[in-house]
Every structure is written in C-alpha cells, then in structure tokens.
Amino acid sequence: MYKEYYIYQTTFTSLAAGNGTVFTDNEIRIDSDSEFEFIKSHHYPPDARARIKYRDDTSGRYLGKASQDIRTISGHSHFTMAPGNPTPPGFVPFIWPRPYLIAAATTFTVSAADFSGLVRTLYMSFHGNKVRQGEAPWSNKPRAVIPYMYAISSTGTVQIPANGTMSASIATDNDAAFIVHKIVGARDGSCTVTVKDGARDRQWMNTAVHFDNLVGNGHFPNILPAPRYIARGSVIAVTLQDLSGVANDVELNFIGVKIYE
To answer: Which residues contact 146 (CB under 8 A, 6 or more apart)?
Structure first.
C-alpha cells in the first residue's frame, strides 16, 4: 500500500448573500479507484465570510458539532504587498489533527452559508492522499537522489489569454524519474489549474482548482502530504483557465527529487 497526493475541490458558484443561517450543499463524489485520506483544507478568496459544515455521507457523520466560520477550519493564501512588488501567494492550509479516511465510491458533503452579505464564488479544496494498493513506483532503492525543479516553460512563465485557456506539457528528462514534493509559482491574475501525470493518465485533482488553492511561494510552498511520481521521459500536463479577464502571466514550478535507479 502507498499514498499519492490528490485534491478534491468543490466550488460554490455565486453563493447567495446571507447571514450565515441558510446553507447550500455541495456533494463531492469520491473516486472508485481508492479511498481518500483528507488532511488539509484551503479556500479562495481569502476574505470569504461563510459558515461551513462537513458530512461523511457513508456514515452520516458530521466532522463538527456545529457549523464553523470558514476562517477557523480552512486556510487561505497569504500575500505580502509592497509598492510595485507583490509577493506571490503563500499556501497556508488548515491541517487537521489527524487524517480522516473517506471510503472510495462514496460522497462527502460540504455545506456553506454566506454571512458577508455579498454574492461571491467560493472555491474550497481538500488536500490529502489517495491510498493505493500495491508497491509505490519509487519503492526500489535508487543509486542516487538529487534535488531538482521543473518549470512550466523554458522561460519560466506562460501567458493565458484573457478569459481563455492554455495548456503546457512539462517534459521530464530520460535519465531519471521525478518525485514531486512541493509546488510553487506566481500569477498576475486569478485563474484555475489542472495537473495530470501524462504517462499514467492520472489526474491530480477531481476538477480544475483555483490557482491559490494549489500553489504557494518560497516562504510558504504547498508541501505535498504524499509525493507524486513522474516516470522518466514522461510529462506533467498542465491546463490553465483565466478568470481575470486580461492577459495573465503565470509561473508554476514543481520541486522534488530525481531518482536514479
């Protein structure tokens, strides 16, 4: 048995303005290929004001006695602003005291009630691991392990057209497999991202996630609770969708180790 990093996201599109008492339910369907070990939660936008409830639908168990202010049970990106020099978003999640295992092929319901009095879209991501049967692809003792980083492009940056999408394939070298441990980057405007392991055709998330719910910076990177394995000579496939309405420069870096077998 081994673990592989994964994200489930649910999006409350145009969550109704309210006073925190009228809840909207979003059902997350857990894939049938493995159980999900829920460890961290993160949301966008950072200034969201909502009350949240979680329910494991298999058992009917709520993960809390009452609804909670989202700011107390979910992290969000942190920015350091300086004139003309904003720091990229830092990934600062809420971490549960221990992992919670959700059965494969079941559902997990997230309920949200706004108390800001504003209509807004709320992106909530749940970070953890798929628990897979068998041996990890990296289980053999390697000859050597060195730190390494792959960037989204040879220039380090790509541009998404206004309200458009763009795709990038990050080719890994033939000399060694790559294990991802951290994700960092920067963006000019709001956007979503999906990531896929090209060789095994495995998605890293159930749907496109908001960039700030996946990507950190040098101070606060997204440190994966379990690695993602990329076979040598394979690709990390990335798709970006602009939400800002203007041309959007994005940088995305995968940090980990090369393993020489």
So the answer is: 257, 258, 260
Q: Which helix (H) or strand (E) holds 73?
A: helix 70-73
Helix (H) or strand (E) holding 248: strand 248-260
The alpha carbon torsion through 240, 241, 247, 252 (nearest 10 deg) reads: -30
| Amino acid sitting at position 127 | H
Mean pLDDT of 57-84: 86
Backbone angles phi and psi of 70, in degrees to 5: -55, -30
| Residue 23 sits in the same domain as residue 97 | yes
Q: Which domain holds residue 235?
A: 145-260
Within a domain: 245:
yes
User: Which residue, 78, 105, 132, sits at the end of a domain?
Assistant: 132
What does the block give as tokens for 209? 């996630």
Give the pLDDT band (50/70/90) at residue 85.
low
91 with 172, same domain: the answer is no
Q: Give pLDDT, residue 141.
A: 84
Tokens at 193, concatenated = 């991202």
User: CA-based angle 46:256:170, to the nearest 5?
Assistant: 85
Q: Are residues 125 and 6 in the same domain?
A: yes
Rg (the chain; Cα; Å):
19
Q: Which residues contact 90 (CB under 8 A, 6 or more apart)?
A: 77, 78, 79, 80, 216, 217, 219, 220
| CA distances (Å), origin 183, targets 69, 75, 229, 243 | 27, 16, 14, 21
**Which of 109, 132, 155 represents a domain boundary (last residue)?**
132
Report the SS3 class of residue 71.
helix
Using a pLDDT cut of 70, give the percent of the chain over it. Answer: 97
Within this chain, do residues 112 and 39 fall inside the same structural domain, yes or no? Answer: yes
